[in-house]
């Protein structure tokens, strides 16, 4: 096993590419927030069923695996998933947890906790897949 410093483990090998992926996480947050707001308001059943939890999780895992393959930063992987899931929770927050719309502070708390859990699970899985593929191919 090759010794790696913490900064490289969290941000990846290339700092410029890590910055680009971090900007991508911000764009992903806005896109997720807007997409699920439109789906919630207008209701596109065919598109919505395609990108429900399972499809969205698979899509995020593949996206994070691509990031891990290209740069290899687990912190960036977690950030990508955190941003994407926060957009979902901020639109659907509280429906299954409280059976009603929670207040703003509770909704933000749900978004932080839920996004952190999803980032730990999906982000780590995608990072592992991307890193394994990179090591096998290169």
Walk me through the structure:
- With 138 residues, the chain is mainly α.
- 83% of the residues lie in helices and 0% in strands.
- It contains seven helices and no strands.
- The chain has helices spanning 6-11, 15-42, 45-50, 53-70, 74-92, 95-98, 104-137.
- Helix 2 packs parallel to helix 5, helix 4 (53-70) packs antiparallel against helix 5 and helix 4 (53-70) packs across helix 7.
- The model has no long low-confidence stretch (mean pLDDT 84).
| Biggest sheet descriptor | none
Strand count: 0
N-to-C span = 15 Å
Shape: globular
User: Could you tell me the mean pLDDT?
Assistant: 84
Report Rg. Answer: 16 Å
What is the N-to-C succession of helices and strands?
HHHHHHH
What structural class is derived from the secondary structure elements?
Answer: mainly alpha
Strand percentage, roughly? Answer: under 5%
Helix percentage? over 70%
* Number of separate helices: 7
